Amino acid sequence: MSLINSHRLMIMAGPLVLTITVATWLSLLWAGWFLVFWSYPPSLLSSSTEAVADFSDRIYFVGYTIFTLGNGDFSPSGGSWQVATALASGTGLFTATLAITYLISVISAAVSARAFAAEVRGLGNTPAEAVAAGWDGNSYSGLSLPLNSIASQLTKLSQQYLAYPVFQYFHSDEAGKSPIVGLARLDQVLMIAAHGVPDRFRPPEVILNSARSAIVNVLEALPKHFTKPVGAPLPIPSLDALRSRGQPVVPEDEFAIEVGSEQDRRKRLHGLLIAHGWGVEDI
Description:
Layout: H1 3-38, E1 44-46, H2 55-66, E2 74-76, H3 79-121, H4 127-132, H5 144-163, H6 179-196, H7 205-221, H8 240-244, H9 252-260, H10 263-275
Antiparallel strand pairs: 1-2
Helix pairs in contact: 1-2, 1-3, 3-5, 3-6, 5-7, 6-7, 6-9, 6-10
């Protein structure tokens, strides 16, 4: 199967899991109240003939009730069953409202994730170009504002992964819109900004630390099987884009030593890329 077809199949996973989740909530509620009314045969009577409701009638009545459409031509017999009907209607309304709210929240989270990916991609065509674009002639402080904004988005994203477990199954078929690719790309931008340029030219340490912490928070929020470290870490990004512009960079061997101390996170990010069908070339 080609990577394109693989991504197309993965796109369907999120909406499918979300639909199944909501359908399961409603089905379990429907089944639960059906068993309640099935437990006592005289609990439901036909409004026109007063005949005892049969199996299919009770399914129909419970569905009609939990979706707050009425009683469906059947009447509960006695006060206790009338109360049970009211409770069924109330729980149905609550569950339907909860399901709609959950759907909207997950879709909103997916949109926010794409916005994060687009903002990271907008920094530059490669991680090195993104850092180079932040050079203002004296330092790389031009990165401060976008990195601060991106770190805030990432912090929110990590909480959304925790709040809505189904969100982890949402996928994009374009690398530029994938939050997973964006996460790996941002990590490489931070590696260059934190280790690839001399100290005096770097963005403020607090901003770099905030963005790195946000990346770790996302990795911790995702299931372990998605972030399982692989044998090789993400490759060390090239500094050629900065060097070709005459911008200050550290020696390659010094950069490699500094980046080498962060292999665990880089391996986890590489594993995350692979788990979502992406490769190093997509960063």
